[in-house]
Structures are given as C-alpha cells and as structure tokens.
Specification:
It is globular and about 60 Å long. It has a single domain, classed as Decaprenyl diphosphate synthase-like (Undecaprenyl pyrophosphate synthetase, 3-Layer(aba) Sandwich). It is an alpha/beta fold. The chain contains seven helices and six strands; from the N terminus they run E-H-H-E-H-E-H-E-H-H-E-E-H.
C-alpha cells in the first residue's frame, strides 16, 4: 500500500455528532480531541511523516463565547496530558496560525510544548490554530515585502519556490492527501497554497467517529489513485 508522506485533515462534525446524541456541542469537542491522539499514533505507525490538522479557523471566533472557552480549556488540557507521549514517541508539535488572539495562558502552554518537542524528528504534528488560508497568503506577502524593502531579496528572486518559504508550512512537504470528515466537500480556507495538488478524500463520518480503521480506509483509497501533477503518462 502506498503511504502518503503528509496527510492534512479538516476535523469536521464535532457539534453535529454531539447533537445527534442529544449532548452539548462541547461533548463533541471533547470526544474529537481523543480521536486526534489515536490518529497521530496510527499515522506514525503506518509510516506517515507529517500530519496537519485544522483545529480552529480564523472564522471560528464567531462561535458562542462559552463554547470557545471550553474548547480552549480542552486544548490546554490536551497539551498537558499529551506532552509526555509526544516526547516518548519522538513527535514534534508545530502550531501554525495567528498567535496574537489566543488566550495568553493557552499560548504559553503551546510554546512550552513546541520548545520541549523541538528536536524530535520521527514525526511532525502540525496543528492549525486560529488559521486561515487567505490569512496565510496575506501574511506571507507582508513578510516577503518587508524582506524586499530590507533588500534581502530582489524582484527577480520572487517565484513559487521563494514564496513557499514564507507560508505557514514552510520547510514541510505539501500534503499528499487531504481528508475531510462529516460529509462536507470543500477545503474551507485551509492550506490554500499547499493543497494545490493534494488528493482529496471526503467521508460522511463525523470526526469523533473517525478512528484508525477510517484512516486506513482513506489511505487505501489514496494508494489506488494515480497522481499526475498535470502531466500525461503513457
């Protein structure tokens, strides 16, 4: 079976999973966080090297304040409980997205775990938090313009390869496979630059029900595809 080097996941359907079970939406977030650990373990076991999950988008701030407070408390607890396993399994945590709007206490914990796992090399676990694909490109453009104004680059230097070094996932191969749960079939402002040639896999399964068997099914589907990258093969 052909194993993708990098998998990206839009973890969708926590709220609908909870509502279907007549539970508060926050129960879906709590269960969804459990699935994250399981999927990281299984992806690493299968030979995947990079996993990027969409945890919180720039648009998610419009949700009820109570739900946001609980969600970020779950994220903080997740990091506290997960950091020992990350070290034991040689997994590096990397957060992508804005850092100026997340609660300072939560961000301090994030940066603590990032620093702790910074030298781990077996597997890279990217978490997109307060992230949006359009924000990513705008932020990249701003930093590129600053470098141009500081004369560290010239107009003739600017090409796709250079810009790729400014986006949030710089230095990491583009995702081979994007998985989106809950039946929605769109990328929802996620990794716009990096998903240009990714294979897309949509499943009706809500994220809290997306277990290692579901992951294996997505990878099997991917392994049966022929990736052409715009080329023609005889």
């Amino acid at each position: 079976m052909k194993i993708p080097q990098h998998i990206a996941i839009i973890m969708d359907g926590n709220g609908r999973w909870a509502q279907k079970k007549h539970l508060p939406r926050t129960a879906g977030h709590r269960e969804g966080i459990k699935r994250v650990k399981e999927v990281v373990r299984e992806a690493k076991k299968l030979g995947v090297k990079f996993l990027t999950v969409f945890a919180f988008s720039t648009e998610n701030w419009d949700r009820p304040k109570g739900e946001l407070k609980v969600l970020f408390s779950y994220i903080e607890r997740f990091l506290n409980e997960y950091k020992k396993e990350l070290m034991r399994e040689d997994v590096r945590l990397n957060i992508i997205g804005r850092r100026d709007r997340v609660d300072k206490k939560v961000m301090n914990k994030i940066e603590e775990v990032e620093k702790m796992t910074g030298n781990n090399k077996s597997f890279v676990f990217n978490v997109a938090l307060d992230y949006g694909g359009r924000w990513d490109i705008v932020d990249s453009a701003k930093r590129l313009i600053r470098d141009y104004e500081n004369k560290t680059i010239s107009i003739t230097d600017i090409n796709e390869e250079l810009l790729a070094n400014y986006v949030a996932l710089r230095g990491i191969p583009d995702p081979d496979l994007l998985i989106r749960t809950s039946g929605e079939q769109r990328i929802s402002n996620f990794l716009i630059w990096n998903l240009a040639y990714s294979e897309l896999y949509f499943t009706p399964v809500f994220w809290p029900d997306f277990n290692k068997e579901e992951l294996l099914g997505a990878i099997k589907d991917y392994s049966e595809r022929e990736r052409r990258f715009g080329k023609i093969y005889a």
